[in-house]
Amino acid sequence: MESAPRTDHPEKHGQRNPTLAEFVIVCLCAEWCGVCREYREGFAALARQFPEAGFHWLDIEEHADNLGDIDVENFPTLLIKRRNLVLFYGIMLPTPSHLKRTLEAFLEQSSEESEEYAFSSVDRHGWQDDPDLRHLDAACLGRLCPQD
Known about the structure:
- With 148 residues, the protein is α+β, with helices and mostly antiparallel strands.
- The chain has helices spanning 34-49, 96-107, 111-118, 122-129, 131-135, 138-144; strands at 23-29, 54-59, 77-82, 85-91.
- A four-stranded mixed sheet has the order 2-1-3-4, sandwiched between helices.
- The longest helix is centred in the N-terminal third of the chain and has 16 residues, at 34-49.
- The radius of gyration is 15 Å and the shape is globular.
- The two termini are 27 Å apart.
């Protein structure tokens, strides 16, 4: 994911970044999972660093009826969306700095670059067509789980 470097980083100057409001970041987890429990505080700390974005901690067992055919094979599984575009869906090392760098890279993209990226591979294209991933939007997540 390459994009032209940008010099306009309002969040680095103490100003809010309105683009963050376009993002939803979901950690699909399970209460019984020790890795998830250890990762949760770091995930919550990132939510505090990026308050305009929607960070959600979604227990896949508690909300199994709302997840459709979403298959979580390992933890943590993360979903990152910009508006209705799925930019990332998969396993990520349980190190908050990895998620932070990923989110910062997506913030570097214009809306047009994000759309191009979302359709730039067979897997990503498939995510856009997956009704269960599309269903997990800010409104749905607001009802299912609290924002961290």
